[in-house]
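Run folding on both entries below.
>entry_1
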Amino acid sequence: MCEKHWYVVHTYSGYENRVKTNLEKRVESMEMQDKIFRVIVPTEKKIEAKEGQKKTTTRKVFPGYILVEMILTDDSWYVVRNTPGVTGFVGPGSKPIPLSEAEVNQIMKQMGMTEPKPKIDFEVSEQVRVIDGPFKNFVGTIEEILGERGKLKVMISMFGRETPVELDFYQVERFS
């Protein structure tokens, strides 16, 4: 009995979700559930700040590719390879190469098995204006970017003194 592994399948760019749906339907109609287990379009969530609002967007990590967890046999290869929108497996020649466990774990982690990563659109020493919260309308200078937490340390002048304030990315905008 062969082991199940993850394989990377090349698709037409922009058709990843359609290929995923088509492949899942083919697996069901051709009764391949015992050989083809999961089909994933690798995506990740990003938190962006637009006009003072927090917005979570999803983007494809590998446009033009999907991941398929399967036991590679001639039959399972045929089902995947002949799904509309699939251009082939990733690997030299016609032999698909499975992803290593470390590669799969990295992709799964990147896909949001962890918290969404904020999109960092700021630089240290850049001037920003606070647009939300108790310091609204104050102008300050970015002292530090705490990217993993989605926060900035901003130096704001209060009562004639520079005071460090920790703010979320969506609470500030560039000051020009």
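>entry_2
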Amino acid sequence: MMTKDFSRRDFLKGALAAGGIVATSRLPLHARGNYEQLSLAYAHIAAGAEKPFSVLHLSDTHLTFANPDEPEGVQKYRRIRTELFGGRQYESLKDSIRWAKINADYLIHTGDLMDFVSEGNLLAVQEAFGPDAGNIFGAIGNHEYWWPKEPKPDRAECFARCSKAYPYNLTFGSQVINGVNFVSIDDAHNDVTQEQMEAFAKEVKKGLPIILLMHVPFPTPRIVAATLKYWKWNSKFRNTAADMRDFGAKKAAKFGRRGQEFMAYLKGEKLLKGILAGHQHITVEERFSPTAVQYLVAGNFAFAGREVLFT
């Protein structure tokens, strides 16, 4: 009986001739990628870097862990939210970290790393962002302030617990990479503080190009349209002019007075070269100012991310 090497082409040819749909798990091993379940977008920001480097931008992982000894209220919430987000959030985060270590220079996460504050989630963050995770920077999201039990602690307590687990400053941070200043700010409650605005002004005085990291994006028209289409039923783009104006006005109104002042100021800040954000669970980008584009990345709970090349 004659034998021959069974190649991937032979396998596909035979399967397709039979009219079959081939599961990738049945393909020869060499035909499968190590990270094929990741869904990555790409972008290039000409920020004026001293030398090129790349960043993997993640957001909205929504970890849903709880230790067995945590209250029933937390356990019930864990079950509901794990079902909602699919239950593979930690796997996605770990795959993304491994991918970044091989293919990028830095990892940025712009909030909602956990879905709610629990001992299980805090432990998962510490394990994922351990010493082997590489270069990590980021911002905090609104879900870092969620507490699924009574009595609910105040915002300061949630913040204090997250601060011990996260490897970066959650209120305001700055990290210079190859001459580009990455500035993170906590806007999880649709506003900024006077102290944050003053800290940002000090960063501007450094004279370096700035990339702003934040969780909640500024409501620019295309991002509003994409958000409306994603979250609202029957939102065909051709029929939503009035809805978009109304929805955009509501989004803008959610920003506090200082937040709106900050947005207006940034539109004229020439050192601002880009904004990385999340929150809406969609991948979309739009010109924010003459010098900066705002980039949103879809939820990491769905294995999404974006690699950004800086030059």
